[in-house]
Amino acid sequence: METGSKKRKSLIQLALLSAGHFFNDIHSAFLPTLLPEIIRKLSLSMTQAGFLNSATGLVQMLTIPFMGVLADRTNRPIFVIAGPILSSLGIALMPFAPGYASLLLCLAVFSFGSSTFHPQGQASSGAVAGESRHSLFVSLFSGAGMLGAAFSPLYAVFVVKTLGYRGLPVVLIPTFALAAIVYRFMPRIDFTPSRRSEGGFLTSIWQVGRVIWPVWAISLARDATFQGVRFFLPLFLTLRGGTLAQGGFAIFAITLLAVAASLAGGWSADRWGARNVIAVTLILSPLAILAATFAEGPFSLALFIAGTALLDASSPMTLAMGQKLTPHARGVASSILMGFSWGLAGIATYPAGMIADTLGLTVTLRGFALLPLISLPILFRRF
Predict the structure, then answer these.
(1) Taking the CB of residue 158, how many other CB atoms lie within 10 A of it?
(2) Other C-beta atoms within 10 Å of 109: how many?
(3) Which of 72, 108, 116, 183 is the most exposed place for a label (fewest CB within 10 A)?
(4) What does the pLDDT look like over 98-151, one tens digit per residue?
């Protein structure tokens, strides 16, 4: 039975962790939102622009497993504090990057910050909850990150419209303020750190990956389309005469509706079966995105938003399928289906940029739209 003071302490810790998640993820859409400005400033090709997103995915893929191991070895909120600072620092330095290589370095700092925060933040949100409120606390922590990601494009547009592109260092103020508050009120997190990792890390990933690869393949196709459209859509809109604000609104709407689609997808799977709901989303979403590339004006934008957001309806279902296939290793399955799949999907924007340079951005978006359809045979044969 938890005492009143212990409950208050856990609520304060959850609030600080959730605030960290919000301010870490609120920088997540700055790159796609400001991509037209970045391309104009540095005279980038589509190939170079596509590699920017690929680089962030690659850094995340390579660093997040090791940051998870380090986070398990301390109960001090080192990574919860450092993560949002590094994420905002990478964004703040972007306007002062004199060339492409220095911009990549800025984005590496941003991506490493996200990798630094998430393992300790996710684990700590459950650790401070206690057994009776574990699911609630983890859900609230995750919701704070989703909210930050949803408002990220609006935040980016607001800062640039108010202070100009070189005013981005202002994003450092809230993250440094939060770091001071966390350091003051949460010197330690309530869990016992491990001294060493259990078993062979790479062996565990390989054993789980062999079992869940069909689910991972479906997740990869879905995430590649989601990231590709989300990344290139603001640029596509500006090439059609749109504004930076319209591109930011499109990403905001996609992210917000994706959260709703994810919740609706989980509910629908309980009623009609995960396989059926996944199949519907993998068919309807490509059709909507393809139609958007042929349509014009607000109708085109609405189709892009609806089609891309609909993809996320299958996220909780693929995660649940992977965990059911490996009940002995749910954590490893989740990291493969969420972290590794998302990072690898981000790398797809680099070859997509090459295609855009050669065949145009419209053809590239149509190619992204078709990827979920390729995963349908796997879904029908394996499940």
Answers:
(1) 13
(2) 20
(3) 183
(4) 999 999 999 999 999 998 998 888 777 767 766 556 656 766 777 788 889 989
Backbone angles phi and psi of 73, in degrees to 5: -100, 5
Burial class (CB in 10 A: 0-12, 13-18, 19+), 377: exposed
Q: What's the per-residue H, E or C state across 127-163? A: HCCCHHHHHHHHHHHHHHHHHHHHHHHHHHHHHHHHH
pLDDT-wise least confident of 97-111, 187-201, 229-243, 248-262: 187-201
Predicted confidence (pLDDT) per residue in 350-379, tens digit? 999 999 999 999 999 999 999 999 999 999
Distance between first and last Cα of the chain = 43
Q: Which tokens go with 253? A: 């709407």
Confidence (pLDDT) at 197: 46
**Which residue ranges form the domains of the chain, and what is each CATH number?**
1-198 (1.20.1250.20), 200-383 (1.20.1250.20)
